[in-house]
Amino acid sequence: MSRRSLLIGGGALVAAGGAAFVFRKKLRNKVDQWTTRAAFSATPPLVPHDPVRDRTTLHVAQGAGPAGNIDAIMTKRGGMASLVGPDDVVVIKVAAQWWNTGMTNVAAVKRTIEHVLEVPGFRGEVIVFENTHFRRRDGASDDPSTGLTRAWTRPSAWNVDVPGMERLIDLQPYFAERGAPVSFVGLIDGGASALADDPWYDPDHAHGVYGGDGRGPIGAGDPRDGYHWDFGATFRLKRSWVAHAQSPLTWPRFTSPRTGLVVDLRDGVQRREGDRLVATDHKLVFINMTTCNEHGSTGMTGACKSPMGLVDMSAGALGTDPRVADYQSVHYFGRLPGVPGERAPTWRMAGPLAFFGERVRRADLYLTVAEYVAVTPAGGYPEDEDDMRQHRACAHQVGTIIAGTDPVAIDAWATRNLLHPVGGVYQAMLDLDDPDAKVTRFLRYFRQTAGWGTLDPALVTVA
Q: Which string of DSSP letters, residue by residue, matches 334-364?
């Protein structure tokens, strides 16, 4: 056989093999679609409550403005010193992917930081952080400001409430001018995304480009900042005869721009010694400051959904790293092939979100900041112009902050008392008295996965 014939024959075999692979993949996708288990979309059972273990207390403040409500919450809880010690490293996770009603109120964040700084003898530091899943196009991967995008840098028309400020990042120079031990870090996903070119209501990408920096996950023994991808701790749920919904466990590591201390959200506070990371004696305190809004996939977005800004969204669809080709990122966990999003059990993302809390870290304190809530009004709004968390017609001022350690109880209280009473187009999906409402399914599944969390109002004390 001539060399030319051999090359032609080899090329034909490769082409045939490629075509066969594509055919097998298409066939598998069809079988996945045809054989989807009914149980995957079924309402989760309400796991019985333990009347002792599941009893919890929520602290609620209303009507004093965001800063005043934070003050009232801290008074009710016995002060920030009941949570934070003098040498602690305090990380405060805010919501910053969307602006206006979609971000954590700036005045509430400012006052929370000040309460930490006012702890008697405080010598530690505060790091305010969030993964918006966007990055500055011109930023270096190891620059902590590269991920300070979206609501960090875009002005908000409301929900700021600090004279002279209009963005979350305005807090950075405020504390720097006072020499306070406060820094700001924007996390960046590890992998690239197929959604990078989407305009995301910012067509010029003036406030970030969606997707990671393409470095991939942190390797074993690698001391760099970034995201861990743990495929050995994958959250999996049988979806059909041939497929599982599955998301690898991911969590971040980042460095304080002020002190150089390293925060690994699972392993705590470390320091670098050459090319090694060594544990320190600093306690890591985690405060999660969430928003409270209607959400089409889960019914509501609040304390339970807030780890979406802690995980790596490129670790699965629609991430383009080949290692995650057969995985769903957390936000897409409940999607079904061939089924429109509104009919898919998107509330199933509660599973990997709860799994994250059990395997990585729960917040030591949740502060659901609901100065405004976003609910689609009965008359609708121009959806082609804005996300509902940004449009003024969807913003309702309720002037409330809820504090606690049980995110299920917080979200249930907020749904019953803040979101559902507003009414609106999608009020039915916020009806906790309906077992098949989207928010009920979401909170039940979170609770079922975590093994804890309170949905029974009789077990919740509101102070």
A: T--TTS-GGGS-GGGGHHHHHHHHHHT---S
Q: What DSSP string runs through 263-285?
A: EETTTEEEEEETTEEEE-SPPEE
Instruction: Tell me the C-alpha distance between 307 and 129, whole Å.
Output: 12
pLDDT per residue over 80-97, tens digit each?
A: 999 999 999 999 999 999
From 91, 128, 104, select the one nearest 266 (Cα to Cα): 91
pLDDT tens for each residue of 270-312:
999 999 999 999 999 999 999 999 999 999 999 999 999 999 9
Q: Encoding tokens for residue 283? A: 């306690």
Question: How far is it, in rounded angstroms, from Cα 48 to Cα 283?
Answer: 35
The SS3 of residue 232 is strand
Q: Of the candidates 59, 90, 189, 83, which has an alpha carbon nearest to the alpha carbon of residue 134?
A: 189
Could you tell me the residue ranges of all domains in the chain? 53-462
- Mean pLDDT, range 134-143, rounded to an integer: 91
Task: Specify whether the CB–CB gap between 161 and 66 falls below 8 A.
Answer: yes
Considering all CA atoms of the chain, what is the largest pairwise distance in Å, rounded to the nearest integer?
Answer: 87
Nearest C-alpha neighbor of 368 from the set 425, 311, 306, 428: 306
E strands along 122-267, which residues? 125-130, 134-135, 182-186, 209-210, 226-238, 244-255, 262-264
Q: How many residues does the chain have?
A: 463
pTM given for the model: 0.93
